[in-house]
C-alpha cells in the first residue's frame, strides 16, 4: 500500500493481535457475571468504587478463598471496554464502580437484568459451536450449533429445562426494558389492533406489556414452541390465547 508507514503497520499489527485475543473480552464479561460482580459493586444503589479484594469479600465471604489479583485482571480488562470505571486512589490502589453499561447487569426490582443474556450466550453448548463457523461456509446445510451438539438450538433447549429457563429469562431481561421504552416513547402502532400475534414471543412479556398499555388489544397470541409457552406466565385480566406450534398441528388453549 502506498500510504503505509511504520506507524500504520505497527497499528495494524496491534489491531490483529487485539482481534486474535478478542475472546478474552466476552469471557471476562461472562466471568464477572458468574461471580456476580455487578450486584456486589452496585450494592443496592451505592455503586461506591471497591477494590478487587473488597469485591471478592462481597462475592465470596470465605476467609480463605479467592484470588483478588485474578479478579483485578478481569476488572481491568472490562474497564477498558467501558463496563467498569477504574479509580486509582492515593495509595495507588485500584477501585472499580459500574458505568451505565455495567449497570445493565444489575438485577432490577423485577428481578431482571442483562446478566442472563450474557450467561445464555456463553453456555458450553453455544461456545462449542463457534469454532465451527467456517463449516457453515463449506457446508451451509448444518448449522454450527447442530454440528457441535447433534441438533438445532431450540430443540436442544426444549429438552433441557434449565437451558430453556435461561433462554426465557435472558429474553425477558432484554425485551422488557426495550418494550417499556417503545411504549413509554409514545409508539402508537398498536392503536386499533384487536388481535395481536407475537411470533416467537418467548415468555410473553412483550404481549403482556402491550395488552396492559392498549386495552383495545383483546386477544393476544403468543406463538412459540410448546415447551416455551408452557413456562410463559398467564396474562392477568384480558382474554389471552396461547398457541403453540407443536408441529405438525397447532394446539390452542386459553391461558386465563
Ligand atoms: C430470540 S427469541 C425471541 C424473544 C422474544 N421475541 C422476546 O422479545 O422476548 C426467539 C424465540 O423464537 C422461538 N422459536 C424458535 N423456533 C420457533 C418455531 N419454529 N416456532 C415458533 N417459535 C419458535 C424461541 O422459542 C424463542 O422464544
Automatic annotation (TrEMBL):
Q: Report whether Methyltransferase shows up as a keyword of the record.
A: yes
Keywords in alphabetical order, please.
Methyltransferase, S-adenosyl-L-methionine, Transferase
InterPro entries named in the record: COMT-like, COMT_C, COMT_dimerisation, SAM-dependent_MTases_sf, WH-like_DNA-bd_sf, WH_DNA-bd_sf
Q: Which domain of life is it from?
A: Eukaryota
List the GO molecular function terms: O-methyltransferase activity; protein dimerization activity
**One biological-process term from Gene Ontology?**
methylation
Domain O-methyltransferase C-terminal, first and last residues per copy: 133-234
Pfam families assigned to the protein according to its UniProt record, in alphabetical order: Dimerisation (PF08100), Methyltransf_2 (PF00891)
Q: Where is the O-methyltransferase dimerisation domain?
A: 17-108
**Key word S-adenosyl-L-methionine present in the record?**
yes
Question: What name appears for this protein in its UniProt entry?
Answer: O-methyltransferase domain-containing protein
